[in-house]
């Protein structure tokens, strides 16, 4: 129940020595500010680093072939082999935990020779032969038209989907793109779609300079047949690709007569494993942030506890009078705890507000200056805020517990004798 006299008494006690109260509250203010800012900066670093993965399905890996390192069944060491479309079908049929298996081929490169012509304009771009599933592994925003389809795959249509920087290089402003033609290594392709990558960090320059065409058309137009340069493989939800990739390797080794223990013959990059390592690192950094922030906050709490002990000492005679007039030990203890709790929560809430202002300023500066490498959107969740509030309440109670017990242990007669 609200007791005006009690609140007036608490306010009077806290304002009796304003400078002392300010210095005491500053410890808690600074501790909670450090805690929230450390967690926000850790989250900003995590956002920046994980943005390098783009929106690619993180439960995925890339797999390609390399030279064998061991002779096997009469075949020599150093032999090279290629994946085929039959390998893709075998993976899908024999390993049920695979969600997507996308064969890929590549031509040219961002820094290679000019390989695309439109009229009098030329450019060097990444050319990929892909299946329709790839857009589910590497999400992209289709700005106009569509991505490649199975109809394109089956009919081996000479169609393409081009990135935003390809448009800037080969087209005039406001020029119609859909339905136009570009010549890739001497072969004409009709543009059926345009895209940009779905990436919070902005378009990656290499991605924006990319052209996608149907995989089967790539093989026919550029004399690749059914050879596969590499595969993008994604596991089903709930099954880490890391746990089943050895099954994939074993199947490919058996199909291409590679020694079972020849680990060099198949190259791969496990996106899921790398992502988990990064998440583990930032989990540790978050724990360190809580630990360091808690230590700084603890120093503030100790300061409040010490000051409350001094306050109890200064009010010993007052406590003796109240006890002599019939105040119960719990009434005295409740008042001390309440004063400590209010001082802790008020200073902590100011600290949370101050840290929120700093986070807002940081995000504003980042928006003004543009993307920063390995750092983006420093922020904290509401869970962190509620956790901080719980820490404040518990800390306030702990800070007042020792002084409150000290106040109730004195006998009224002894307290009244003290001058």
From TrEMBL:
The keyword rRNA-binding does not apply. Signal peptide: none annotated. It is found in: Cell membrane. It is a multi-pass membrane protein. Residues 291-412 form the ABC3 transporter permease C-terminal domain. Its main location: membrane. The keyword Transferase does not apply. The chain crosses the membrane at residues 21-41, 287-312, 341-362, 382-402. Residues 21-248 form the MacB-like periplasmic core domain. Keywords: Cell membrane, Membrane, Transmembrane, Transmembrane helix. It comes from the Bacteria. InterPro entries: ABC3_permease_C, MacB_PCD, Macrolide_Exporter_MacB. Belongs to the ABC-4 integral membrane protein family. PANTHER family: ABC TRANSPORTER PERMEASE YTRF, MEMBRANE COMPONENT OF TRANSPORTER-RELATED. This is ABC transporter permease. It comes from Gaetbulibacter jejuensis.
């Amino acid at each position: 129940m609200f007791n005006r006299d009690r609140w007036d008494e608490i306010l009077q006690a806290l304002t009796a020595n304003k400078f002392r109260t300010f210095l005491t509250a500053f410890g808690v203010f600074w501790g909670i500010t450090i805690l929230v800012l450390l967690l926000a900066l850790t989250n900003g670093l995590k956002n920046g680093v994980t943005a390098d993965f783009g929106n690619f399905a993180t439960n995925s890996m890339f797999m390609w072939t390399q030279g064998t390192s061991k002779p096997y069944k009469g075949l020599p060491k150093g032999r090279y082999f290629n994946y085929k479309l039959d390998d893709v079908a075998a993976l899908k049929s024999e390993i049920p935990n695979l969600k997507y298996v996308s064969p890929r081929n590549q031509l040219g490169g961002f820094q290679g020779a000019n390989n695309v012509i439109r009229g009098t304009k030329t450019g060097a771009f990444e050319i990929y032969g892909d299946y329709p599933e790839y857009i589910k592994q590497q999400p992209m925003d289709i700005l106009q038209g569509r991505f490649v389809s199975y109809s394109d795959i089956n009919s081996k249509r000479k169609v393409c989907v081009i990135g935003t920087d390809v448009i800037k290089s080969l087209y005039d402003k406001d020029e119609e793109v859909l339905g136009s033609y570009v010549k890739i290594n001497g072969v004409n392709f009709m543009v059926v779609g345009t895209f940009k990558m779905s990436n919070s960090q902005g378009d990656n320059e290499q991605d924006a300079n990319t052209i996608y065409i149907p995989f089967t058309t790539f093989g026919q137009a550029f004399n690749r047949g059914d050879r596969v340069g590499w595969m993008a493989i994604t596991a089903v939800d709930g099954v880490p690709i890391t746990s089943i990739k050895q099954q994939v390797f074993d199947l490919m080794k058996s199909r291409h007569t590679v020694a079972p223990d020849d680990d060099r013959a198949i190259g791969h990059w496990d996106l899921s494993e790398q992502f988990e390592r990064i998440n583990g690192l930032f989990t540790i950094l978050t724990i360190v942030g809580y630990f360091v922030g808690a230590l700084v906050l603890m120093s503030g709490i100790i300061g409040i506890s010490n000051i409350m002990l001094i306050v109890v000492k200064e009010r010993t005679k007052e406590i003796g009078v109240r006890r002599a007039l019939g105040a119960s030990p719990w009434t005295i203890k409740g008042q001390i705890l309440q004063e400590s709790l209010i001082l802790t929560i008020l200073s902590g809430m100011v600290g949370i507000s101050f840290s929120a202002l700093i986070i807002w300023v940081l995000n504003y500066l980042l928006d003004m200056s543009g993307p920063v490498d390995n750092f983006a959107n420093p922020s904290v969740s509401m869970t962190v805020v509620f956790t901080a509030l719980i820490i404040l309440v518990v800390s306030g109670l702990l800070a007042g517990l020792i002084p409150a017990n000290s106040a109730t242990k004195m006998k009224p007669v002894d307290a009244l004798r003290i001058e």
